[in-house]
Amino acid sequence: MRLSATFKVGNISVAALSDAAAKMPLPRFFNEVPNEEWTSALSIDSPDESVPFNFGSFLLRGNGRTVLLDTGFGEQGPYAAAEGAAGLLDRIRDLGVGLDEIDAVIHTHLHFDHVGWNTVTEDNERVPTFRNAIWRVSDEEINWWNGGAVQPHPDYEHILRDVFDPIVETGKVESFSGETLVEPFLTSIPTPGHTPGHTSFLLSSAGEHLLLVGDAAHHPEHLVHHDWVPAVDNDPAETTRSRRRIVDLAIEKDAMVTGGHFPILTVGKLSKINNEVSFLEVDINETDVF
C-alpha cells in the first residue's frame, strides 16, 4: 500500500500522507447494513475479508502557508505492525518540509487517530511537535470534549490529556465555528455526526476545488450510500445529513473528493442522477516536487 502521494489543486500543493496503512475487515464501518449489500459494493466475497484502510493526514502548501490537516496516531498508535506505522513525521521530512515550517495544524475532529502527533515526549514531558504552529478546531468539537463525551476507545481520556491538553496550555489553539475561511485557500464545512463538531474542509485555488471529508466518510461508498453508517459515529442521522451536504457541495463546485481513511491515492468526483449518487475515481497528475 502507498504511504504518500503529492499533487496540485490550482496553485496549492497537496500531500496525502499515511501514519499507518492496514488491510482489515470493515464490518463495523457498515453497521446494520446487510452483508450482501456492502460486500457487493466493495467487490469482496465476505464481511471478514480484509481491504485496504488508511490512517492519513494531508499537508497543504501555498499562499505562503504550510498547513497540516490532522496528525495521525503518533507515538501511541495501536497499529504498530501496520505498514508505515508512526511514520507521519518522516513522511513530512521526506517532502523537504521541516516540522518548524508548519504554520497551522487543523483538526477535522479530536479522535485519537487524528491528533496523535500533536505532541512528542521531551524530558518526560509532552510538548508541541510543530513549535511554530497554531492549532484550529471547531468550537463545537472542543465544547463536546469539555462536556465529558464518552468515547469507544477506553484510553481516550489519557490520550487526549497527552496530545491535546498540552497544546491548549500553550495558548496555541484558535477555535472557529460554522463555515469559515480558516486559511486563504481552506474553508471549514461543518459535517457533524461522527462527532458533534466534526468538520470537513473545502480547498479552493485557481478555480479548482478539493473536498477533504475527514471521517464524514471512511470509505467512498459512504458518500454513495448516505445511510450506511459506521458503528463509531455518534449520531447516524447527522452523519447522513452531512454526507448529503458533501455530495451537494461537491457537485455544485465540481470538486474532487478524498478522505484520510481512503487508501492513497483515492480521489474522485461525485454525481447524482435521479437521486442515485456515484463516486467515480479520477486520474490525478501526481507531482514529484512539493
Describe this structure in words.
The structure is a single chain. This protein is α/β, with parallel strands linked by helices. It has a single domain, classed as Ribonuclease Z/Hydroxyacylglutathione hydrolase-like (Metallo-beta-lactamase, Chain A, 4-Layer Sandwich), CATH 3.60.15.10. It has helices at residues 35-41, 88-94, 139-146, 156-163, 165-169, 221-224, 236-253, and strands spanning 4-9, 12-24, 51-62, 65-69, 104-106, 119-122, 125-128, 134-138, 173-176, 181-183, 186-190, 199-205, 208-212, 256-258, 268-273, 276-281. The strands form 4 sheets. The chain has a 7-stranded mixed beta sheet with strand order 1-2-3-4-5-8-9. A 5-stranded mixed beta sheet has the order 10-11-12-13-14, with helices on one face. A two-stranded antiparallel sheet has the order 6-7. The two termini are 21 Å apart. The mean pLDDT is 94.
Describe the secondary-structure layout.
Layout: E1 4-9, E2 12-24, H1 35-41, E3 51-62, E4 65-69, H2 88-94, E5 104-106, E6 119-122, E7 125-128, E8 134-138, H3 139-146, H4 156-163, H5 165-169, E9 173-176, E10 181-183, E11 186-190, E12 199-205, E13 208-212, H6 221-224, H7 236-253, E14 256-258, E15 268-273, E16 276-281
Parallel strand pairs: 4-5, 5-8, 8-9, 13-14
Antiparallel strand pairs: 1-2, 2-3, 3-4, 6-7, 10-11, 11-12, 12-13, 15-16
